[in-house]
Specification:
Blueprint lengths: L3 E2 L23 E5 L2 E8 L2 E8 L5 H17 L7 H6 L6 E2 L2 H16 L9 H7 L11 H8 L7 E4 L2 E4 L12 H15 L5 E5 L2 E5 L8 E6 L8 E7 L3 E6 L4 E4 L2 E4 L14 E8 L2 H14 L1 H9 L5 E6 L4 E3 L7
Antiparallel strand pairs: 1-17, 2-3, 3-4, 4-8, 5-7, 6-7, 8-9, 9-12, 10-11, 12-15, 13-14, 15-16, 16-17
The structure holds adenosine-5'-diphosphate (ADP) and magnesium ion.
């Protein structure tokens, strides 16, 4: 295994307009330029944007947005009657879920095993305690963390076909670290089935591409400087047809007494992971796997995370430290 350390400089900013979504509304705003349609909206508590090249007909975007809405209704922890909501309110009884939910749970369980528990979707009791969305700014007490932690652990989750059982009635699941990637894959699948040959799907930093941007150039994806402003790009990569997913401390956090309390939590303690990393970017074919891996590698840290990535075929990673060092796996594309 070999790590490459880049000098501590901020590289020339490369701005990818599609990544810098400005509009932010539920129904979405459409934009037409010749031979291309795009739309920005708000799902899964995050900005999503789609660009489809080679068409002026944005009905394909309507269908993508409906698809995303349906998946949010199925997979959200907080939407009443979603599959996840039903699992979390089952009081220990078996629940029947959709094929999609079952396959996503199965994938999440695989990553729990691969990451030796660093990735754990039964993290929900901790997530509820921190409540970054509704009530940021309060650090939970040790007693509250210990109580929540007594209900965290993937061993309480059982999946048998489409039947899900959470043995501990107080346990709960949260698919926040994998659902956006999974949904991006489904949107890509749909667009491909419609004959689309060039598209950019961006679900809150989960970027998935179809083909090239144009006949002469691949997609150029900016990777955010995790310690900079939202439009500061630290490096960029050129890809076609691949997924680029980043987990970073900047996505959801509050600062108190000089400490950045962010939303990627250590399942062993319930505390935000503090291991010198600020972000992990995964380049892969599947966005669901990239999403699961970016969170897994963040929690595992530079050394173990890099080891995991190097053991997987077709997957590359870029780790960015709090010293703004860029450390990448052997096959990560250079700028
Ligand atoms: P983002 O949602 O910003 O793209 P991630 O993919 O890393 O970032 O997901 C972080 C979210 O996943 C958190 O908001 C929380 O809901 C959940 N989560 C936090 N820590 C873990 C963990 N160790 N394993 C699985 N899910 C986690
Ligand atoms: Mg993730």
């Amino acid at each position: 295994m070999q790590h490459k350390f880049y000098p501590k400089i901020v590289l020339l900013p490369v701005v990818l307009a599609a990544l810098l979504a400005t509009a932010c509304q539920r129904t979405g705003t459409s934009d037409h330029s010749s031979g291309s349609v795009s739309r920005t909206g708000f799902f899964f508590d995050t900005v999503v944007s789609l660009t489809v090249n080679g068409t002026d007909d944005d009905s394909v975007l309507d269908e993508c947005f409906t698809l995303m809405e349906n998946y949010e209704a199925m997979l959200s922890r907080t939407r009443e009657n979603s599959d996840v909501w039903k699992i979390n309110h089952s009081s220990g009884k078996p629940v029947t879920v959709s094929d999609e939910t079952a396959s996503l749970l199965s994938l999440a369980m695989k990553y729990s095993e691969l990451s030796d528990g660093a990735f754990d979707i039964t993290i929900a009791p901790y997530v509820e305690l921190w409540d970054f969305k509704e009530n940021p700014g309060t650090v939970p007490s040790e007693a509250d963390l210990a109580e929540a932690g007594s209900h965290v652990g993937i061993s309480s989750l059982r999946l048998d076909g489409n039947t899900v059982t959470l043995d501990d009635p107080e346990a709960a699941v949260d698919l926040g670290a994998i659902a956006k990637g999974y949904i991006a894959d489904r949107v890509k699948e749909f667009l491909t089935s419609q004959g689309v040959e060039s598209a950019l799907i961006n679900l809150g930093g989960n970027v998935l591409t179809i083909g090239n941007r144009s006949s002469s150039s691949p997609w150029n994806i900016g990777i955010r400087d995790p310690l900079g402003d939202s439009d500061d790009i630290i490096t960029s990569i050129r890809i076609s047809g691949k997924s680029v997913v980043t987990s970073g401390t900047y996505e959801r956090y509050f600062e108190k007494d000089g400490v950045r309390y962010h939303h990627i939590l250590d399942p062993k303690t319930g505390l935000p992971v503090q291991n010198g990393l600020e972000s992990v970017t995964i380049l892969s074919n599947s966005s669901a796997e990239g999403d699961a891996l970016s969170t897994s590698c963040f929690v595992l840290g530079l050394e173990k995370g890099m080891e995991l990535v190097e053991s997987l075929d077709g997957t590359e990673a870029l780790f960015i430290t709090d010293e703004q060092e860029l450390c990448c796996s052997d096959g990560f594309p250079k700028e």
